[in-house]
Structure to design on (476 residues):
């Protein structure tokens, strides 16, 4: 374990390229024996905890099938591990810390660790929203940092796709102008090595970009941000009350609330990102973690995924752009690898439009759905990635046929009713029909009311980057 930590830490340290941020001087001590020891709970933490591969492996090989040649690869990736964002997330955690700091008695039960000179990892608000890197944590040996995830993802991509990458060693990649997204892209690109000259284009997240963005939800003013309120009201949330009651009984006068209990899950997840482990995670029972995980699934399904009537329209923007590239002959393209970096919500919208994880009946709040394959944290953990492969295969009569296949967090995810090709892929003509059928009643610009914020109707940056300078300033 220690050798693994030191190896990964070495990668993270040598890849440290993000500007320095003030380190919390009080956050100095770590228990190395605990680093990476809580991986079994990541899948319940709303995608806020460190990256993990999709946990249900169908054993389909990631290798390109024999007699086939890979001709295009598209990566649509989320940023790596980060600090909590300023606003409700950080405020909710800080409110709990304030209560702890003003408690004048010894802590008991699962909070007893607070008696042992516990050092709070979120005291420096200048870190909020940033990728976790050796520059902004006191423990650079944490192998779960966002910088390490970005680096590792780049190395794994190089291993899988070295041949096609070397066909165009000068190429362009795209990132949103979020600081943590841009930093992830930098770590990824640097990991590819100095043989590649990558022109990283920075696309604004501003609503005025309309459809020409990696974050089209921002250009959708008709999006209903309270779509989940009624759904979540039907879900049994007594597990949150049980947590606060249990901790208050162990620590009389602490007065934690149901809302505090909910925010403790964020504390748990983000502290792992910063520190490599979190003692606050031990507050929860396994049942409570499962119930919280489903709470997050419900919230995501009806707010960002297929349960929201506009999710397919928003996600159609990147799906249609990628489809246009897939239908372009490779001799007409300047590159065959397309790297795009954005946020979790955008990947969720993309998956909704694409039809991935939409096969089951809608999940409901009346009870936990044990059969669904939709879980927010499985789809978009920190560092999530969806890859699209296009490969050409020789047919028995020696003609070439193109096929499309998707990989979600290191596992092949065949499309339902379109997976009869080699490696459980979908022929390109069938995939064109698949997308056409899904988008029969979809119009991003009209349905989203985009004209209220922008007159940009199409995603063009994959094509016009040579004549248009995409260099938006970074924002947290």
């Amino acid at each position: 374990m220690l050798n693994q930590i030191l190896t990964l830490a070495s990668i993270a340290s040598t890849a440290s390229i993000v500007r320095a941020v003030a380190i919390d001087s009080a956050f100095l001590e770590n228990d190395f024996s605990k680093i990476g020891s809580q991986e079994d709970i990541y899948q319940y933490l709303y995608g806020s905890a460190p990256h993990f591969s999709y946990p249900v492996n169908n054993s389909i090989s990631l290798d390109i099938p024999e007699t086939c040649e890979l001709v295009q690869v598209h990566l649509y990736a989320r940023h790596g591990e980060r600090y909590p964002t300023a606003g409700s997330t950080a405020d909710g955690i800080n409110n709990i810390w304030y209560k702890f700091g003003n408690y004048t008695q010894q802590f008991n039960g699962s909070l007893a660790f607070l008696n042992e000179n516990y050092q709070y990892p979120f005291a420096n608000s200048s870190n909020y929203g940033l990728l976790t890197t050796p520059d902004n944590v006191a423990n650079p040996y944490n192998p779960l940092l966002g910088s390490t995830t970005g680096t590792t993802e780049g190395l794994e991509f190089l291993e899988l796709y070295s041949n096609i990458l070397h066909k165009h060693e000068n190429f362009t990649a795209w990132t949103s102008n979020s600081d943590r997204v841009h930093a992830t892209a930098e770590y990824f690109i640097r990991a590819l090595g100095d043989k590649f000259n990558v022109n990283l284009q920075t696309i604004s997240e501003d609503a005025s970009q309309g459809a020409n963005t990696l974050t089209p939800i921002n250009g959708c003013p008709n999006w209903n941000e309270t779509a989940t309120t009624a759904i979540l009201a039907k879900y049994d949330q007594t597990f949150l009350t049980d947590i606060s009651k249990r901790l208050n009984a162990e620590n009389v006068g602490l007065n934690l609330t149901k809302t505090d209990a909910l925010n403790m899950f964020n504390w748990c997840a983000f502290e792992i990102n910063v520190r490599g482990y979190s003692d606050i995670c031990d507050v929860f029972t396994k049942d409570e973690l499962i119930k919280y995980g489903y709470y997050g699934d419900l919230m995501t399904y009806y707010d960002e995924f297929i349960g929201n009537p506009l999710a397919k329209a928003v996600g159609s923007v990147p799906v249609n752009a990628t489809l246009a590239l897939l239908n372009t002959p490779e001799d007409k393209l300047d590159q065959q690898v397309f790297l795009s970096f954005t946020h979790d919500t955008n990947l969720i919208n993309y998956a909704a439009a694409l039809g991935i994880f939409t096969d089951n009946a809608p999940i409901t709040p009346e009870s936990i759905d044990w059969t669904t394959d939709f879980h927010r944290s499985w789809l978009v953990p920190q560092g999530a990635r969806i890859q699209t492969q296009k490969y050409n295969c020789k047919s028995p009569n020696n003609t070439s046929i193109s096929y499309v296949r998707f990989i979600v967090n290191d596992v092949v995810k065949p499309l339902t009713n379109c997976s009869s090709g080699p490696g459980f892929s979908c022929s390109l003509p069938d995939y064109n029909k698949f997308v056409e059928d899904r988008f029969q009643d979809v119009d991003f610009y009209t349905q989203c009311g985009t004209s209220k914020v922008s007159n940009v109707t199409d995603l063009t940056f994959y094509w016009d980057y040579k004549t248009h300078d995409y260099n938006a300033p970074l924002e947290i």
Q: What stands out?
A: The mean pLDDT is 92. The first helix runs from residue 2 to 14. The domain at 2-464 is CATH 3.40.50.1240 (Rossmann fold).
